[in-house]
Amino acid sequence: MKLIMVGLDHTTAPVVIRERLAFNGSLLPDALKQLTSRQGDRRPILSEAVILSTCNRVEIYGVAREAHKEREVVRFLSEFHEIPEEQFAHCLLIHTGEAVSRHLGQTAAGLRSLVLGEAQIQGQVRTAAEEAQKVGTLGPGLDRLFRNAITSGKRVRHETTLGQGAASVSQAGVELARMRLGSLEGVSVALIGSGEVSELAAQNLLANGARNLMIVNRTLANAEKLAERYSARAYSFDNLHHVLSHADIVISSTAAPTTILHRDQIADALQAKREQCGDQQQEMLLIDLAVPRDIDEDVAEIPGVYLATVDDLREVISHTLELRNAVAAIAERIVEEEMEKFNAWLRSQDALPILSTMRQQAETLRSSEVERAMRRLNDLSPEQQSVIEAFSHALVNKLLHHPTLRVKSAAAQGEGQRYAMILRDLFDIETI
């Protein structure tokens, strides 16, 4: 089994690159199908595929039938998103074999997150596997890999304090607002989007003293559901100007493929806000937690507007990083322990081709010898023939049982290839 991962994250690529390679909404199923299906005269790139696309990472996990498929995955990223490779190739992380499981295990545990130990990533890893299962690209290899990674993440959260503090991007965004304004008491906050990020932001805003929350969503019913839970007011996008003109802080986290807040909108809203208050010193803090971004970057050029993206949260994160680094070492050991279970299984797969060929060869010999014996023993009843067939099957299985167990055990210790060569020589097996 040839396991690969090709991707990038916040440690290797800025948001301007991550957003261009993100797989959002309807793009994800189509991408998974293209990775695992024949395209014209091209053979499928992968036999199994999962795409993990979040605000901080875009990663393609796959099982390939042939070696060195990583190059084709890079080409796929370029062609699918219509971006020349030279614009992102220098940002890529490429792993194969056991390095893939180590990377995913660390990711699921929050060890590779912008906010070390963030709580959301484990659910995102699970969702990525579930989406692949719906499309039909989650095979036995990646299914086992992702289940082990999720288990490692659970253990880290239960057995360490890594998740304490600003444990999500939402919480870090609220903390950034608190640091910027000094206090959130009495401020008006507009949350654009009604998903998990907005809900976590609402929780953290209320915990920090904010009371005047406005939730905006394209589907008003979704905004109303979230607003009801947090004593907020719900608005549709038709009322966006009204909401913006009454907001001190705007936190946006939609799944829109392109920006939804533009310079003219923000400038008009800020001007309306100043006219209402009779105060030309009124300012507005915009926090864009979406990838692709929700807010045009030139909004930051408006006097009195401060714009932050997910990449600007490092200032907040540094306050809790030192404490978490001490705990991270313990979390790393948990991840290594849990993912070693998968790696042992992965190594055992090295022995499967030779064992399969050996059994096929044994079955061919068994069938041939039984047929010859039957011809020499005339007038056997069906019951007698059945006894001979059962005897021959049992004999072959018992002869191969212990060697099979020993070879699988050796393969789990990394000796699969060596034992495969020995079996090939001993049983004169030409192909593996």
List the helices and strands and how they pair.
Layout: E1 2-9, H1 15-21, H2 27-36, E2 48-53, E3 57-64, H3 70-81, E4 93-96, H4 98-108, H5 120-135, H6 140-159, H7 169-181, E5 188-192, H8 196-207, E6 212-216, H9 220-229, E7 233-235, H10 240-244, E8 249-252, H11 263-277, E9 284-288, E10 305-309, H12 314-348, H13 352-376, H14 382-426
Parallel strand pairs: 5-6, 5-8, 6-7, 8-9, 9-10
Antiparallel strand pairs: 1-3, 1-4, 2-3
Protein model, in words:
55% of the residues lie in helices and 12% in strands. The chain has 432 residues and is of the alpha/beta class. The protein has three domains: 2-163 and 323-348, 2-Layer Sandwich (Beta Polymerase, domain 2); 169-317, NAD(P)-binding Rossmann-like Domain (Rossmann fold), CATH 3.40.50.720; 350-426, no CATH class. The strands form two sheets. The chain has a six-stranded parallel β-sheet. It has a four-stranded antiparallel β-sheet with strand order 2-3-1-4, with helices on both faces. The two termini are 13 Å apart. The model has no long low-confidence stretch (mean pLDDT 88).
